[in-house]
């Protein structure tokens, strides 16, 4: 495979909505979610570069509302990085504690008939023994396809240490990896046979656990990379 996207977070090129930046700070379809507002870059930016890593901070703002951060690799007009097939990876430290909900995921660029989603990792801080990987197809007519796997990897390892979370997508299979070791696979759906773009975020669960979330909480990201299948 050939390296096609390499974000080492020596700097951060982000704007609220683009165009012309590597990242934007919201989902391109403006469907932000969870129990914290995804904040724009600026005076209250949730993003900080520290020693070649990205720190995403979830905290209460001066008004008492939770804010945090999300990055997406395309803007609302589809400008930015996306790729059909290949390997996508994030190396990160995850926050611990109730309410935190960090994620690394992919979305298909064409959402006209269905939304193709691959959740490489969804970590819930109140379930610290592992994380979830999920494949979704959300059809416009209300049908929903889903395949779920619970990865109980933190029995000996720690989510607060750096680990790599990856997925390899080809025409037939979607394969998931933890620290580059194979975890599980599921069949590629027709809706996933298209360019996929990258999202990563530190969200909060919109529920009672949010009241016990450590304030502030941090997700530290060392790199995000993609490799093309040749």
UniProtKB/TrEMBL annotation:
One of its GO terms (molecular function) is hydrolase activity. The keyword Iron does not apply. Keywords: Hydrolase. The keyword Magnesium does not apply. InterPro entries: Beta-glucanase-like, ConA-like_dom_sf, Glycosyl_Hydrlase_16. Belongs to the glycosyl hydrolase 16 family. PANTHER family: GLYCOSIDE HYDROLASE FAMILY 16 PROTEIN, GLYCOSYL HYDROLASE-RELATED. This is Glycoside hydrolase family 16 protein. It comes from Nitratireductor rhodophyticola.
């Amino acid at each position: 495979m050939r390296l096609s996207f390499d974000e080492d977070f020596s700097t951060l090129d982000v704007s609220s909505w683009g165009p012309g930046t590597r990242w934007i700070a919201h989902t391109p379809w403006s469907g932000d979610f969870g129990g914290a507002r995804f904040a724009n870059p600026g005076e209250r930016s949730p993003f900080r570069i520290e020693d070649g890593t990205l720190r995403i901070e979830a905290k209460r703002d001066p008004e008492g509302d939770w804010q945090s951060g999300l990055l997406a690799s395309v803007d609302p007009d589809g400008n930015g990085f996306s790729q059909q097939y290949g390997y996508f990876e994030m190396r990160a430290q995850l926050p611990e504690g109730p309410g935190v909900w960090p994620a690394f995921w992919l979305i298909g660029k064409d959402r006209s008939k269905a939304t193709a989603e691959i959740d490489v990792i969804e970590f819930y801080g109140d379930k610290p023994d592992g994380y979830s990987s999920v494949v979704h197809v959300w059809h416009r007519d209300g049908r929903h396809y889903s395949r779920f796997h619970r990865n109980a990897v933190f029995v000996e390892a720690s989510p607060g240490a750096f680990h790599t979370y990856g997925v390899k997508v080809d025409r037939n299979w979607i394969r998931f990896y933890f620290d580059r070791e194979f975890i599980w696979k599921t069949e590629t759906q027709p809706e996933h046979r298209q360019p996929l773009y990258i999202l990563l975020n530190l969200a909060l669960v919109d529920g009672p656990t949010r009241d016990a979330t450590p304030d502030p909480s941090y997700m530290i990201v060392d790199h995000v990379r993609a490799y093309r299948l040749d």
